[in-house]
Amino acid sequence: MTTVLKLGGSVVTDKDEPETVDRAALTDAADAIAEANGDLVVVHGGGSFGHPSAAAHGVTDAAGTHDAAGIREIHDAMGELNAAVVGALQDRDVPALPVRPLSVAYRDDGGGTAFPSEPVATMLAERFVPVAHGDVVAQRGAGATILSGDEIVTLLAERLDADRVGVCSTVPGVLDGDGEVIDRIDDFEAVASALGESEATDVTGGMAAKIRALLELETPASVFGPAQLRTFLSGGRPGTLVARDSTP
Ligand code: IP8
């Protein structure tokens, strides 16, 4: 059983304070992950680490830069957060290892992304827990652009033939216009108007982009909040199920 879990950047960082880890939230998430069984790949977002520095350098998933110092700054910020996540997991005896996308992933001039999954698959085979993160990656013809954690989740879930996909966000699921959790989404247009923009600086498109990407997957995905992480990791389907067909 292979599970790909996204820890939202806003879950593990204080999104309003630049480059600040939310220690209590990270501790809770690491405790829940330490209790989980089976092959697990963790992917975390940028939160107050990646997004402000990407915005400062005018880099998004569509707008690139050739400014090597800026690219390094974004990558270093994400490296700092990745070290905090890997460290919190290793403190609980989870055999977590960092996976740094800038060194392995890249985009072609049409924006198609390659993320070689062999290093991650080999880590899983050796019983490690790979921890990847949204990052800045080289793109042919554009310098470097942002590769979101959500896109990494979909790429790895496909390449690793994942059995389960979970996206842990700050909200308990995808919310409708009245603030209620939507049980299931199988069509983007049906929920598009309810999916607002992310409040803090988010250079990769917030919840709408997440749902679009998850609907591309064959494996159904669950979107839920931090309080439901244990339920998801123990086999439950909390929050919103995003599934493009009638898979139960
Ligand atoms: O928070 C973006 O990852 P995301 C990472 O998953 C950077 O969109 C570097 C902004």
Topology:
Layout lengths: L1 E6 L1 H4 L10 H12 L4 E6 L2 H10 L11 H24 L4 E4 L6 E2 L5 E2 L3 H8 L3 E5 L1 E5 L3 E5 L1 H11 L4 E5 L15 E2 L2 H4 L14 H10 L5 E4 L4 H5 L6 E3 L6
Parallel strand pairs: 1-2, 1-9, 2-6, 3-6, 4-7, 9-11, 10-12
Antiparallel strand pairs: 4-5, 7-8, 11-12
Helix pairs in contact: 3-4
Short description, anyone?
The chain is built from nine helices and twelve strands. It is an alpha/beta fold.
Q: What does this 3D model show about the protein?
A:
Its EC number is 2.7.4.26. The structure is a single chain. The chain is α/β, with parallel strands linked by helices. The chain has one domain: Acetylglutamate kinase-like (Carbamate kinase). The chain is 35% helix and 20% strand. The chain is built from nine helices and twelve strands. Strands 3-6-2-1-9-11-12-10 form an eight-stranded mixed β-sheet, with helices on both faces. Strands 5-4-7-8 form a four-stranded mixed β-sheet. The protein starts with a strand and ends in a 6-residue tail after the last strand. The model has no long low-confidence stretch (mean pLDDT 93).
